[in-house]
Design goal:
Blueprint lengths: L9 E8 L6 E8 L19 H14 L8 E11 L8 E11 L2 E10 L2 E12 L5
Antiparallel strand pairs: 1-2, 2-4, 3-6, 4-5, 5-6
Pfam families: ApeI-like
GO molecular function, one term: (3R)-hydroxyacyl-[acyl-carrier-protein] dehydratase activity
Enzyme class: lyase
């Protein structure tokens, strides 16, 4: 496996706030091209988009539109990841993210799907960057 992920998230649902929970939700799509460098070695006769690349698509989607008013956020942890199905060249990922406040941190929970159904669930934790004095 070589290279980085070329695919970029495209917003399909603008961030919206749930007043009751304080959570923010948004939706994105990511087109997985057969030209992704990772397909060269993963696997030559049966290309599969690696799980770490799915996680990278989620991270990029999440960071496209963090909750308003949060300032700079940095990825602090991958809390959990579950891969449910393979992602192949030509698939379009649908990524639904939900940002929830967690004390001084924010949790970003994402559901990832292809047209065949659920592909992954990912939970990321972000910390607010300290502002210099």
């Amino acid at each position: 496996m070589t290279g980085t992920v070329l695919a970029a998230p495209r917003p399909v649902r603008a961030p919206a706030r749930d007043e009751a929970s304080g959570a923010w939700t948004a939706g994105y799509t990511v087109a997985i091209s057969g030209d992704e460098p990772v397909f060269a070695g993963h696997y030559p006769d049966f290309p599969i988009f690696p799980g770490v690349c799915v996680m990278e698509c989620v991270r990029r989607a999440a960071e496209t539109a963090p909750p308003p008013g949060t300032g700079e956020l940095r990825l602090a942890a991958v809390e959990s990841t579950r891969f449910l199905a393979a992602v192949h060249p030509g698939d379009e990922l649908t990524i639904d993210v939900t940002w929830s406040p967690r004390g001084e941190a924010w949790r970003c929970a994402a559901k990832v799907a292809t047209d065949r159904g659920p592909a992954a669930s990912v939970r990321l934790r972000y910390q607010q960057e300290a502002t210099p004095c």
